[in-house]
Description:
By secondary structure, the protein is mostly beta strands. The protein has one domain (about 10-129): CATH 2.40.50.840. The protein has 1 helix and 8 strands, in the order αββββββββ. The protein has one helix at about 10-20, and strands spanning about 25-30, 35, 50-55, 60-65, 80-85, 90-95, 110-115, 120-129. A hairpin with a 5-residue loop joins strand 7 (about 110-115) and strand 8 (about 120-129). The two termini are about 30 Å apart.
Amino acid sequence: MAIRPMVNRDSQFFWDGTREGELRIQKCNACGARRFPPGPACQSCEAYDRGYDVASGEGTVFSYVVHRHPPVPGKELPIVIALVDLDEGVRMVGEVAGVADDEIEIGTRLRVEFNTIDDELTLPIWRKL
Length: 129
């Protein structure tokens, strides 16, 4: 069983996108500022006029951690978790799959893929380019 993210009216567009194979980033329709994680108001101009862009799905490891303990339901340890600088200028946290804990470093280029858990949840995961 996977740990499920909280889905609300601010993040629903993001999770709808992952089900469609898109990495969506909130964008203010008033000033164009991008934001992740999504929220109700723009942090640049305070407008409530939200939209989104579809990201290229590529980015660079800004930082990372290797999770070794405690166990995570449905996951095999260790898990590599990275803070990814997307090419579009925002950062997001995500699991890096298919790499050993000594095969990741700051500056590694990554591409998003999508892991379908069930009909309601598809998670973005990252892999080395």
